[in-house]
Structures are given as C-alpha cells and as structure tokens.
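Reading a protein record of the kind used here takes little practice once its layout is understood. The fold follows as a row of integers, each naming the local backbone shape at the matching residue. With these conventions in mind, the following record can be read line by line:

_____
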Amino acid sequence: MQNYPPWPHRLVFNFAYGRWWTFLAIFATTYFIFYLAGTASSSREEATQLFFCFIFAYLIPASHYVSAQTVIAFDNLKPTLNLTDAQQLAIRNSLTGLSMKSQGRRLVAGFLAGCGHDYILLTAEFEFLEAIGLLDPINMTIMLMTILLWCLFTAVISLLLDNVWRFARLAKNDVRIDLLNSPAVRGFSRVAVYSTLVLMGALAGFPLLVLQGDANYIAVLPGLFAVIVPMVLIFLVPLLPIRKRLQQCKLQELDLIQNRINELTLGQIKLVENSETLSQLQPLLDYRREILQVPEWPFDSPVIFRLLFYLFIPPMTWVGAAIIERLVDTVNF
C-alpha cells in the first residue's frame, strides 16, 4: 500500500527556508480570511483570531520539521537494528506518509471532533437553532476555523503517536544494545523530545484565548486536553521500552562481571599477595566501573537543555497573559 505525506505537510514549501515562508504565508492567509469576514466586535474575538493565525502557521511547518528529524533519528539507528533492508525501508517510508484511506479516516475524525466542539460552544448559552441565527460572519468563520483546527490536530498528533509507537516497538524487539556505545540509541530520546516540543510550542498559543476576564473556557479546555494528554504519551512511549532494555542489559552484564570476579576470588585467602589474580581482577573492576556509569536514559546534553528550555515556554506565556490582562484592567488609556 502506497503512503502519501499527510495533508498538512503538503502545504509546506519545498525550497530553502520553506518552513519559515510557510509560517508567514499561512499566518497572512488566515489573517486575510478573518479580515474578509469583517471587523471583530470585541478584544476576545481579536485574540481568538490571532490564536488561529498563530496555531495554523506554527503547527504545520513545525510538525513537518519534526517528521524530518524523526527520519534522521531512524537513519542513525539503522546500524543497531536487527532488520532487513526491506523492513527498514518500509518503516522509514511509514514515518512520513500514510495511506489515503488512513488519512481519510483521520480527517473524518477531526471533522466530527470539530463539529462536536462547535456544538458545545453554540449550546452553552442558547438553543442550537437560536445560536445559529445569532451568528455573524466573524463567529461563523471562527466556527469553521475550529473544525479545521481539529482536523489539523488529528492529522498531526496521530502521526506523532504512530511514529513513537513504531520506535517503541523497535526499542522492545529490534534494537541491539551496546553498553559501551550508548550514544547509538539516542535517536529514541530525540524522537520523544522533538515530538513533545512541537506540541509544547502549540500550548504557547492558548493564553491568547484567555486574555480577557470573560474568556469562555469551553473554547479552551477541549483543545488543551487534546494536546496535553497525547504530549505526555508521546514523550513516554518511546523512552520507557529503551530504558527497560538498557536496564536489563546493564544488570545482565554486571551479573556476568560479578560471577567472573567470584570465580577468580573463590578460595583466595590473601588476595593482595596474589599478583596473578590481581592482574586478572583489575580489568574486570575497570569494566564494571564503566558499565555502572552507563546511563539508563538515552539522553544527551543538547536534548536535555532543549527540553528544559521549552518546558518554560508555556508557563511563561500564561504568566505573560495574566500580566497583560492585569495591565489592561488597571491602566486607563
């Protein structure tokens, strides 16, 4: 079955700095659509429009970048995999593409989720038909953008989940563990961190929806839930199996070393006087020290620093939103 790039990734320009140009083009296009719909009647509507402009412009090129980084991580893992060339090629192709049938199902799921969210918003204060009659062009556009955003969330998050589950299966069944070459399996942490960061960046846009004191949290909470829960899974799913494998291999190797040490020292009364035994023990003790220092999590320093840095972005944007809201409430212009 032939795989095709997900529909959001087909929107990314395929030339130098294409992702940055895609960000600008999508932001401008979304803003122009809202401009055609008319002038916002409240600051909350203006913030909502800005949220949609940002989230569409950010999530499409960012997920495209993470997809490319996932392929690079897989290529780096190839020498450690017990897979044939054909199996590796099939997995590699599946990291950036889906069948048309699968994409269609996800598009329908996103459409239904968006319609459900719109229905909840419309019936929060009025009857459904009454609420439909009260919609102006701006709010109708927001309703349509909500459906499109759920379609985007479904496409992006489902692809990220598919990929981390593939890496989890590789970690569980197919990767060879070399304790003296632990950097060889750092691709698992890179996939987990990059995939998590793309959703963490999306969370930075949600404070725009709560800038005003009369913010409708029904508009915010479903989206937050749809991002945060998969984000936690995406981080843990590829890391837990590889950590378990590293732990098991480490314990097995330490047991073998200890058994060899026990064999050499069995029955030895004055070990310090036995230079031959000591000469055999020293390499084992050095090797045991090396194995004990092998990390059980496949992280490297740049990945950890990047994760810690991005962890502060969503909280800081929420703090910034609270400060701006307080200033707007207290300062008279």
Q: What stands out?
A: Residues 92 and 170 are 12 Å apart (CA to CA). Residues 137-174 form the longest helix (38 residues).
